[in-house]
Each structure stands twice: as structure tokens, then as C-alpha cells.
Amino acid sequence: MIPDIAQEGSAQEEQWVPEPKAPVVMFNNVGKTYGRYQAIGGVSLALSGGVTGILGLNGAGKSTLFKLLMGKLQPTQGEVRLFGTNPWKNPAPYARVGYVPENENMHDWMTAHEFVSTFARLHGLTRDEAKQEAERVLEFVGLSDVMHKKIGRYSKGMRQRAKIAHALVNDPDLIILDEPLQGCDPLARTTIMNVIRELGRMGRTVLLSSHILSEIERITEQIVILHQGRLLAIGNLHAIREQLDNIPHTIEIECGDAKALAQDVLSLEVVHGLQFPSPTKLKIFTHHLGEFHQRLPKIIVDNNHDVMVINNPDDDLQSILGYLTGGYN
Amino acid sequence: MEKKRGETIWTSLDRKATAIAEFTMRQYRTRISTWVVLGVGFLAISVVLLFYIDAMNTDIEAIDNDGDSYDWDGDGYVNGQEIKYGTDLNDAFSHPGLLNPPIEPEPASMYINEDDYDWDYSDASSITTGYDNDGDCANSSLLLSQQDGNGDGTPCNIILRYDSLNGGYIVFADPYVDEDPDEDRYGKEAQHRAFILGIGKLGFVFLLSIFIPLFLATGLIRDEMTSGTMQYMTAKPIARGEIFLYRMLGYLAIVWPYLIMLCSLLALVSGIMGPGDQFFRFGDLGVWFSILIAALLATLVYGMLFAFLGVLWKYGIILALPIAAWELGMALLSMSVPESSFLRMSIVGWSMSIIDSGAYLAWPDMAMFTQAGEWAGGSNQGDTFLMFGGNELPGYGALEWAQSDLGLGLGPYATTVVSVIVLLFQATFFWFIGQLIFKSKEIV
Lengths: 329, 444
Fold this sequence. Notes:
The structure holds two protein chains of two kinds.
Chain A: E1 25-34, E2 37-47, E3 50-55, H1 62-69, E4 77-82, E5 97-100, H2 112-120, H3 127-140, H4 156-168, E6 174-177, H5 186-201, E7 205-210, H6 213-217, E8 222-227, E9 230-236, H7 237-244, E10 249-255, H8 258-266, E11 271-278, E12 281-286, H9 289-302, E13 307-311, H10 315-324
Parallel strand pairs in A: 3-7, 3-8, 5-6, 6-7
Antiparallel strand pairs in A: 1-2, 1-4, 8-9, 10-12, 10-13, 11-12
Helix pairs in contact in A: 2-3, 2-4, 3-4, 4-5
Chain B: H1 9-30, H2 32-57, H3 79-85, E1 126-129, H4 144-147, E2 158-162, E3 169-173, H5 183-216, H6 219-227, H7 230-234, H8 240-273, H9 285-312, H10 316-336, H11 348-362, H12 366-375, H13 396-402, H14 412-440
Antiparallel strand pairs in B: 1-2, 2-3
Helix pairs in contact in B: 1-8, 2-5, 2-8, 5-8, 5-9, 5-10, 5-11, 5-13, 6-9, 8-9, 8-14, 9-10, 9-11, 9-14, 10-11, 11-14
């Protein structure tokens, strides 16, 4: 075929050699503006290995950060490096990257197996190799039994897992997941979390974004907090959380009998306040969100409570952000 | 991934190419819009085909161009028979029945279309042709010198001379020779050729080759960018120029077989239905082949162009519409003024010159044949004694409209080669620009 002369690098993984000493992901004073709107400003960050959660409210710039990394956006300022290579206009490093976009649109007319194996061939695999690889990764995300069904008939959680499978083809060193848990049912959530933890254990560099702290918390302790396009905090979640315990958190539970549940919940010392907005709704205030969440399931199961919804609003992240930004939101 | 033996850039490119092309092809197949567009195209062509079949099955009314089926003096003998026996057309008491032995009157129908063309179209330089079938040249009261009106020494014949200045033929005819041509014979052949050229030029190269890419190729890259599904493809180690190219391959894998099928169908039907004694008109296949080549290349170039416009702007179809209008103008221009230099700035002009070359090769008698239709037994010339028919033979107008000369000033083979090269260059150019723009686009 005709060689691509305008390209900066090469699409061939054979020719592209990653910098051995460079961090997997590096942002150096990166900014991205759309007209007068600044999506990202002055972000400097270097990551290698382990699972890192990118935390931020909607519009904080998480997706922009990922898209810059995937060469889908061109930074207006600073430089982005993926394995030491500039990803803009250069698809070569993607041979070692898996990307799960936030976008919910998929090729609904394909089966998950076709979807994964078709895109696996773009890594240079033959048809048969791609099929084997697709089966392997679909097994890994737990979709083996439904992989020959059309994606259009999948639930939200299955779609997310199909997207993750697509990203895991060719065993990438870096996996980027943009809001992988959004809209998933609890079962899919658990599966996806296990997959991500497993990838971390396998020594891959995993980046995932979320706007829900408790989700990230169950997967990793290494977090990056983005707020209004700025890097607010990097580091161990515990260190940040220690300081946060003075701030009360709110949990909303919808259940059959709010009063009965309230009695049992009050036995926890971490709970320091309750509210009854309606007979089937319970609002719980706590300083130790993590501990509360660890102990809540046991209470529910032991006392056979009929719980419909556990709502953990953005409150916790809001409060962290509030704390980090000095009380303003 | 472990590297395997025998692995080269080419094998891996091939894997990517087939993966994306197959993917694109299947994507087209799952869309209803694809089938609607292809179905409408098929219907439009079929309707024209029905008109053609109807025309081929309808006899063209015979016209007595020289008027010798009439009986002026009312003696029961038509003029033609009276001329044959040298009796007076205007005298009721002078007719072949009074001769010894008396001659029975012949039916008037014998004197309609009785002096058809006997032209030998195969010799293209300067030829002597035409034969006075009904003998009304030899039997006329004209002097021998008057019977040799064109002065070539032979009475009652026709000389055709190629006019290299204007590219056509000039007819030098002796009086009353080939003056009552068979309308049906000429008209069917002319309509048949006009149908093939017309449907090839306006049906295949213009209508199908513009509208199919307009609906199918404009969104080739753009739709994926809008819906966000391009995220999956661009997350893989593949250059965007390759994505553009391989998706185009998938588009061609749908459009080209469709054109081949449709073109074969028409070639088959018109080959069987067309005029002539033979079972199948194999001689037309060359024209159909050139139509197919022209349409395949045109869909490629328009596909690249419209896909590029789609990448350029979200509403690329709006940019494509003025181009389609320009191409329509160029299509009509190429059929009337094939040498116009405006045509060099079009896609349709180059495609149509491929068809013209094909027609030139398959029907070398075309220039003489159209001239025959215009001459119409001399009814266009002032020196004929009767003008009962129209000025031109039926089918001549359509043929004259559908056919055009080679506009490049080159021979048919050279015209074809140059046109194919130009079209391939255009396709490459649009691909190059398209992928350059695609590469600089941010995928949000």
C-alpha cells in the first residue's frame, strides 16, 4: 500500500521502539483550550505502573486528559508523552495501549467477538490469531458465554466489558479507562473492578477516571484529583482522607423500613447523625465513609433489611474538593 | 506479541487493510440506507431499461420518403411502377397495363422503404456506395450526365467523403439513389446505440456514480467521528491515512460489485433485445466494458472526494451538492462540446471520454451512421424532388445527442489511457488531501 509520508512516526510496531527509561505517561505543563474555554490548564504529571484513579467532577477535564494521551486532541500548550513518544499524529505507541472511551456508542450490529477480533487485527494479527485473542480477553472480562450475541442487545455493564475487552487485546502495558463503571449494575461493577485490580496485579499501568470516590477507593489508593482543569492533588488516598474525616458525609438509603434500619445503623460508632426525609428513606451522616461502607453490608444482611437503593451522591468528592480548594465549591 | 517468521510490513498491512475493509463492508450491509440508495439506483435504471425494451418492440412507422407509393393519375398503378416501366405519372391513359403484354398493378406497399441504404460502413476513408434498388434513377427521364450528379463517372451511386476539417462525412449522391430508407431498420439501431450511450453516460457515470458516493461515501469517516465510534479504530496502532484508504476499500467492495452486476444485466438485456439478426450483439460488449470502467473509476474518485468533504466539514454533503451540480453541467457539456477545456476540471468529463473511446472502437461506423440519419435519403438536401418524410430519420436525434467525438484530440486507446490515469490521479489526490485533514482533526 501507499506509504504514509506525512506521518511523523510509523504505524508499524516493528519499527517503533519505546523509550526504556521514559515514564509510561507524562504531561509537562499541558493545557488545552477550546476557544475561550479552558478544559485543562498547566497539568504536569508522570505515571508508571500501578492503578491510578483520576478523580474529578463532570467537566473537570478527565476525558480531555485521556484524549490528549491518545492523540485524539492536540494540546494547545505543553507536551504530552506516551512511552516517551508524542502521541499526536503518531499512532505507533498505541500498539502498547488499550483505551476504553467514555462514549457509549458502539458498533451495535456486531457481536462482541466480532468487535474485539476485528479491531485486534489492527494490531497486525491474522484472522485466526485475532479470534483466539478475542476469546482470551472476552473470557478475562467474563463475557465468554454471550460473546456471539449482538452488542446492541447487551446491557450497559456488558457493553462496558466488551469495550474493556477491545482495549485488552495484544496485552497492552498501559490501559486507559474513561468512566468504566458509569451506569453499570452492581454485578458488572464488581466484575469490572476485579478486572482492573487484576490488571494492576499483573503489573500493568492502569489509568481510570471516575467522579465517584468510593468506586475508585475500592480499586486503588493512588489517585489524582482534577478540578476545573487543574491538578488538585496527587497521591495516596488515605493521606488525603485522613484529613477529610472532620468533614461529614451523607449517604442516602432507600429501604422498606427506614426506622428499623436506623436502629441497627446507629450501633455503628462512625455514624453521628440520621435524618428521615420519608418513611422509606434514610439519610446517614458519617465522618468515616470508608469504614461505614465496609460495615454496612453486614448490617443489611444480618438483619435482613430490604434495601432498594444506596445513594452515595457526589457529596464525598464534593467535600474533598471543597476541602482541597479551601472550602469553596 | 512475539514476532513471527515471514512477518513483514506488507503482511501486517494486509491484515489491517482486510480487517477494516471487511468491517466497513459489513457495516454498509447492516444499514438500511445502503439498500435504499442501491435499490433506488436499480429502479431508476430499470425504468429506463423498460422504456428501451418498449422502444425495441415497437415498430417504427415506415415513411414513403420519395413519394412513389402514390398514384397521381389514379390509373391504379403507383408512381414507382410507372417509373419502372417508363409510363407517364400524370396521365391516366399511360400505364404499364396498356403495355404488351399488360402488367398487373403492384401494391403500393412495395414502393415504401424500397430503396434502403446499401452503405458499407466499414471503409472509413472515401468510398463509393449506394445502389439504386428500385431503379428509379436509371429509369428516370434524366440524361446520363444528370444521373451522375456527383460526377464520379458512375451513374446512380453515392460518394461519401470524410471531412477531416469538421470530423463528419459529406454525402455526394446521385438523384433518386437510396432515397427511401427503412425507418425501422435505421431507427432501431440508432435508438439502441443512443440508449447504450445515454444510460452509460447519464445513468452510470453521472447519476449512479455521483449519487451513490454522495449518500454512501460522504459519511464514510464523518459518521464515525460524529457518533464517536471512530474512537475504537483510532485507538489502535494504525495511521489515519490507512483508515481512510481501507474504509474506502470497503466502500468499493459494496459499490463495485453492484455496478458490475447492473452493467452486466443491461448488457445482457440490450444484447438480446437489440436490433439485428444475430442472437446476441457481441459487438456492443466493448462499449459496455468502457461504461463499466468509467463508472468504477468515477465512483472511486467521487467516493474519495465526498469522503474528504465529509472529513473537512460536518455538513460535507452541503459542499458536495454544488460539486454535483457542476458535474451535471460538465456531463451535458461533454455530450455537446466534448473538446471544451472546462471538462478537464471535472471528473465526469474524463469518465465520459472513456465511454466515447469505447464507442469509437466498438462502432467504427458511428460517424457515417449518424450522417446517414441526418441525410435521410436526401430529404435534407435541396435537390430532392419530394420531401414526404421528416428531415431526419427517427432515432437520429437521440443518437446525435448521446454520442460525441473524442474530445482530447487523441486516438481512442490514448484517450482511454490518459483518462484512466487522470482519474486515478484525482482519486489519489483526494485521498491524500482527505487523510491529511483527517489526521489534523481532533476526535472529540
